Structure formats: structure tokens, C-alpha cells
Amino acid sequence: MTKLTHLDDQGKAQMVDVSLKAETHRRADARGRIYMAPATLALIEEGGVKKGDVFSVARLAGIMAAKKTADLIPLCHPLPLQNIQVELSCNTAESCVDIFATANLYGRTGIEMEALSAVSIAALAIYDMCKAVDRGMRISDVRLTHKSGGKSGEFNAD
């Protein structure tokens, strides 16, 4: 079993020292969904949500979250993101919004948490904007789908 790197020799949580790691291009993709009533999804598609353009707000929230991940997740390194993209689409067949984020940087440590934060916060922004009409929305399936760069190599989800 691989040893968790956020633990020191005494088993205490620590921030990992990445100062000797090589800088490489690193990319992470994450996705998730927020399920809702068909009528709520139709409101989003029609631009009928009273709080405004749901996708614009959710996209901005996801980008901002990725930039602030180190402030949200203990022991995460603050990273100089070169790019973060958040894409949203209505999925009428599943009655949900599909959320996809890609984060890129040239650095010494991974970027998975930034992509995952972007997806999670974009979903929460959608919930916040639509909760007046649908409190039963469900955020689901948030996961890493791709990771490249660094010594651990490439990861692609099934």
C-alpha cells in the first residue's frame, strides 16, 4: 500500500515539501452533475431563473473556486494556475446539468483539487440560484476523469 504523503514520521498531518520536485506541465479534468426536476432544468435553459444567468454565474464561481482551492482545502499548495475552464450543459435525458472543468499549470505539484473544486462550487452555485424553485436538487458524480504531469504519471478514469 502506498504511504499517504501528507503524514510526517509521527503520523501528523503536514504540508508536503515539493521544493525538490521537477516542474512539469500538469493538467486535471473533473466532472460532476446536479440533478433537478425537469421544470427547473427548463427554467435554466429558457433563462427564466429570477437570480439571472445560471451558467454564467456557475462558470465564474467554479473559476474563482479553483483559484482559491488552497484557502478551502487544508494542506493544498497555492498554485499559479495558467488556465481553468468550466463548461456546463443541460442534459434533458437525465434531467441534470453536466459540469466539466479543466485546470492547467506548469509547476511542482498536482492540480486535481483545483479541477474538483471548480466542479463542486459550480454545482453549489447552480443549487443556490435555483433553490427557490427546487430544494430537491442533488449534486452527484463529482470525480477526477484525467490527470497528467508529475512523477505519478497519467490517470484516466474508466
From TrEMBL:
<comment type="pathway">
    <text>Cofactor biosynthesis; molybdopterin biosynthesis.</text>
</comment>
<dbReference type="InterPro" id="IPR023045">
    <property type="entry name" value="MoaC"/>
</dbReference>
<feature type="active site">
    <location>
        <position position="128"/>
    </location>
</feature>
<dbReference type="InterPro" id="IPR050105">
    <property type="entry name" value="MoCo_biosynth_MoaA/MoaC"/>
</dbReference>
<comment type="subunit">
    <text>Homohexamer; trimer of dimers.</text>
</comment>
<comment type="function">
    <text>Catalyzes the conversion of (8S)-3',8-cyclo-7,8-dihydroguanosine 5'-triphosphate to cyclic pyranopterin monophosphate (cPMP).</text>
</comment>
<feature type="binding site">
    <location>
        <begin position="75"/>
        <end position="77"/>
    </location>
    <ligand>
        <name>substrate</name>
    </ligand>
</feature>
<comment type="similarity">
    <text>Belongs to the MoaC family.</text>
</comment>
<protein>
    <recommendedName>
        <fullName>Cyclic pyranopterin monophosphate synthase</fullName>
        <ecNumber>4.6.1.17</ecNumber>
    </recommendedName>
</protein>
<dbReference type="Pfam" id="PF01967">
    <property type="entry name" value="MoaC"/>
</dbReference>
<keyword id="KW-0456">Lyase</keyword>
<feature type="binding site">
    <location>
        <begin position="113"/>
        <end position="114"/>
    </location>
    <ligand>
        <name>substrate</name>
    </ligand>
</feature>
<dbReference type="GO" id="GO:0061799">
    <property type="term" value="F:cyclic pyranopterin monophosphate synthase activity"/>
</dbReference>
<keyword id="KW-0501">Molybdenum cofactor biosynthesis</keyword>
<dbReference type="InterPro" id="IPR036522">
    <property type="entry name" value="MoaC_sf"/>
</dbReference>
<dbReference type="InterPro" id="IPR047594">
    <property type="entry name" value="MoaC_bact/euk"/>
</dbReference>
<dbReference type="GO" id="GO:0006777">
    <property type="term" value="P:Mo-molybdopterin cofactor biosynthetic process"/>
</dbReference>
<feature type="domain" description="Molybdopterin cofactor biosynthesis C (MoaC)">
    <location>
        <begin position="15"/>
        <end position="150"/>
    </location>
</feature>
<dbReference type="InterPro" id="IPR002820">
    <property type="entry name" value="Mopterin_CF_biosynth-C_dom"/>
</dbReference>
